[in-house]
């Protein structure tokens, strides 16, 4: 089994930056890729300020400072040639990811493990053209890593045992709680939440509520974030692509269409104006307490039904799944 010592991170957006910042608190040798040469300097300056501040306040010693000061921030993929693990965190686009993995296989050493932080694309998809499918997996972190201590670990049928054990040891070494999945129950946390979001979308129509009103009621069930607020935060294009990918894993594809239609409409209109779910004047209408309780009860009961359905449909550790849901969105199910 190969010990993971040198890690490459691809992507300098919100998620890629969060992965880098989290892993930089551990004693790995890190290479971080951004495609923009100018952005590289900004990332370097920001990180140097951080570690200088840590050294000044005694958070790290000189040896750790020297290690982290040597982290390489680059716009050249060739700098990943000696990495033990490469984590891809770029746009949620199947074609782009597949092309990146094809390039990485040519660059990386034979023992290197290639993983994607994708939230909806299966390892067998972005590794379809690779010779080393056995060294590929999905590691789906949740934002922000420092708060959301849950990771979905996704293996394809091609992933070998050495790769599986190496990744598990890596996640344990950085104090991550994870749930192991195959490609049948992959992305089970987001898929569970999406079912509740679809139900909530129907409730806005049935009870003539705006999205913020529904979110306020739903926070009694999903306390960590609003169901529609989360879609604005993730981005409508990303949500749309992810839902399409989840629908491919489900026999009942029709249930996704109303929400896909809503997102498609908003994406089209965003070319001309901001069309966030929360982009409207707050409603002054006070929702009747009885109606609020009805909706709350509907969502609570539906969550319990989903848990039973998922435990029947998928091979999962129910205790770990409930714990993971709590870490992910705050929902507590008995």
CATH homologous superfamily caption of the largest domain: NAD(P)-binding Rossmann-like Domain
Give the neighbour order of strands across the main sheet: 3-2-1-4-5-6-7-8
How much strand? 5-15%
Largest sheet: 8 strands, mixed
Q: How many H/I helices?
A: 13
How many individual β-strands?
8
- Looking at how many chains there are and whether they match, the oligomeric state comes to single chain
Helix/strand-derived category reads alpha/beta
Q: Which CATH architecture of the largest domain is right?
A: 3-Layer(aba) Sandwich
Could you name the CATH class of the largest domain?
Alpha Beta
Number of domains: 2
The coarse overall form would be: globular
Radius of gyration: 21 Å
Give the tags:
single chain; 334 residues; alpha/beta; Rossmann fold; 2 domains; 13 helices; 10% strand
Element layout with pairings:
Elements: E1 6-10, H1 14-23, E2 29-33, H2 37-56, H3 62-69, E3 72-74, E4 85-88, H4 94-107, E5 113-116, H5 123-126, E6 136-141, E7 151-154, H6 161-173, E8 178-181, H7 188-206, H8 211-218, H9 227-234, H10 236-248, H11 257-269, H12 289-313, H13 318-329
Parallel strand pairs: 1-2, 1-4, 2-3, 4-5, 5-6, 7-8
Antiparallel strand pairs: 6-7
Helix pairs in contact: 2-3, 7-8, 7-12, 10-11
